[in-house]
Amino acid sequence: MSIGQFPHVRPRRNRHDRFTRRLVSENTLSTDNLIWPIFVTEGTASVTDVASMPGVQRVSLDRLAAHVEPAAKLDIPAIALFPITPTDLRDENGTEATNPDNLMCRAARLLKKEFPQIGLIGDVALDPYTSHGHDGLIENGYVVNDPSVRILVTQAVNQAAAGIDIIAPSDMMDGRVRAIREALDNDGLVNTRIMSYAAKYASAFYGPFRDALGSGGLLTGDKKTYQMDPANSDEALREVALDLQEGADMVMVKPGMPYLDIIQRVRQEFAVPTFAYQVSGEYAMLMAAIQNGWLDRDRVIIESLMSFRRAGANGVLTYFALEAARLLRA
Ligand SMILES: NCc1[nH]cc(CCC(=O)O)c1CC(=O)O
Ligand SMILES: [Mg+2]
């Protein structure tokens, strides 16, 4: 490959100046790679801060268009919606998940009308709606699979009918991708895409998100009987293979930076559209250091997002999406 060793070979030559660095650069990060997660809440004229996620807010529907406007201006391709359900609307069975007029569906209808060009990604799982904070139904202390899937299917079809373009099941029940695909197709929603949270780990990095949703305090026990063990890697490939067989159009690995190895393996093995979620805890960690002046904000945002691209991700769900898009435009 090379003609010999130092002093003939000097890798620093290709870093000598900006033009050469540009020419030899192997990966790119652009606004095309960004998906912005958004928290929506009931009520009016309500914009509240998420304490553990500085800069992230929960917004009521009357404020949603104004909130999303900057993303439209920056040409961010898609946003991911997460509804916050008031405690009195939560129950054991997550009934509100199947209400065709729930907050998520209303948000979808509103945004489709206001910003038809922005892709809408809908989270499908029961945790925003259950009194126990789990992603599925509980029987005898166990999150049961098949009955949960039946509810997720209704939830997904309602979301798609309301204008969600990409259904993103984050629940980790077995077989839900096939069940959702069949139900969508039966309803003629053949172009609704599915981005499955295929390899989702039982992670401590979701803490701030559960604060944002108000499901953290409600959660009984942990999610280890359905989310993956952080020790496992081969299992992620089996999970992804199954979701692809079941009809997933895109797959996701979550969390992000602590799982770059998984992203890389998935991308190399399957060569399908692969997404990463830079989750709430990663955001909180970076923001805490940024706010202390310990990390350079602009550089660490771009570097952290570039790491996903290097690992092989097509795109990243990131709470930094607006900031990143601004930096990339500058
Ligand atoms: N269906 C739950 C869900 N969907 C997205 C996140 C986490 C996102 C984040 O931490 O930013 C979670 C948390 C969980 O599994 O408890
Ligand atoms: Mg699975």
SSE succession: HEEEHEHEEEHEHEHHEHEHHEH
Q: Extract low-pLDDT stretches.
A: none
The number of helical segments is: 11
The helix content is 25-40%
Beta-strand content estimate: 15-25%
Averaged pLDDT:
97
Report how far apart the termini are.
38 Å
From the 3D structure, determine the CATH topology: TIM Barrel
Strand arrangement, largest sheet? Answer: 1-4-5-8-9-10-11-12
Please count the beta strands (DSSP E, at least 2 residues each): 12
The small-molecule ligands in this entry are: ligand PBG, magnesium ion
Main sheet properties: 8 strands, parallel, barrel
**Class per helix and strand makeup:** alpha/beta
What is the number of domains? 1
CATH superfamily: Aldolase class I
EC number: 4.2.1.24
Binding site for Mg(2+): 239
Catalytic activity: 2 5-aminolevulinate = porphobilinogen + 2 H2O + H(+)
InterPro entries: ALAD (IPR001731), ALAD_AS (IPR030656), Aldolase_TIM (IPR013785)
